[in-house]
Amino acid sequence: MTATTPLHLKPLPALADNYIWLLHDDHGNALVVDPGEATPVLDALQHQQLQLRAILLTHHHPDHIGGSARLHALTAASIHAPDDPRIELATHRVKDGDRIELGMPQCTLEVLAVPGHTLSHVAFHGEDLLFCGDTLFSVGCGRLFEGTPAQMLASLQRLAALPAHTLVCCGHEYTLANCAFAQSIEPANVMLQQRLQSVRCKRQAGLPSLPSRMSDELACNPFLRIDEADVIHALANEVDVAADRVARFAALRRMKDDFRA
């Protein structure tokens, strides 16, 4: 975040396990990312005396866009969304490489195309923040509802190349369950053990496990670690260990889909 324009980040719990991300300045200006419902946003705006200026949408799933129409109707906030007809309401259609420059709150975000979970999924990166929807989760990744393993792996590797200090703001509170699966893949990963302990303490205290840092994901997230020896070893019964990276990733995603803690 820039020193000249302080920005404040807050995850707003919504629905069963979603997070709506609220970003605001000290002058009462705010944006939200993926408002699956309007009420948590409206409550936060009222409580903190904020004016909603912009809504960013990463993909078309209802639990990420469900509150957008109501919020737009009540606040006239701009809506920045991928060019997907399943997102009917948008004031600005965005694509890979676009830059969103807002004056209120003052911030600049780059649009990254990250197909895999859905074909039109995008992420927003800037101000040391990554709003990645359901592509990258803390210690996990999204299911492949539309894209291919190759697309998802490329998307994850693109996000993994962002600066290590980047705060990862994903769409769901899945970290505990993801840690359990990751431990089944890398039981000797000390950083993962520390991450699990930290997450347990936060969740027991009623706190979100997010955001994480990209450095934490690189150290703990098996979907970003498919070239690590322990991960390859864990895949030995699922895929030829000499298989290419896409085949290893696909096998790992299948294992996660079938995993029961």
Q: Could you please describe the fold and organization of this structure?
A:
By secondary structure, the protein is α/β, with parallel strands linked by helices. It has a single domain, classed as Ribonuclease Z/Hydroxyacylglutathione hydrolase-like (Metallo-beta-lactamase, Chain A). It is built from 9 helices and 14 strands. The termini are far apart.
How would the blueprint of this fold be written?
Elements: E1 8-14, E2 18-24, E3 29-33, H1 39-48, E4 51-56, H2 62-65, H3 68-75, E5 78-82, E6 92-94, E7 99-103, E8 106-113, E9 122-126, E10 129-133, E11 136-137, E12 140-141, H4 149-160, E13 167-170, H5 175-185, H6 190-204, E14 212-213, H7 214-220, H8 229-234, H9 245-258
Parallel strand pairs: 3-4, 4-5, 5-6, 10-13
Antiparallel strand pairs: 1-2, 2-3, 7-8, 8-9, 9-10, 11-12, 13-14
Helix pairs in contact: 5-6
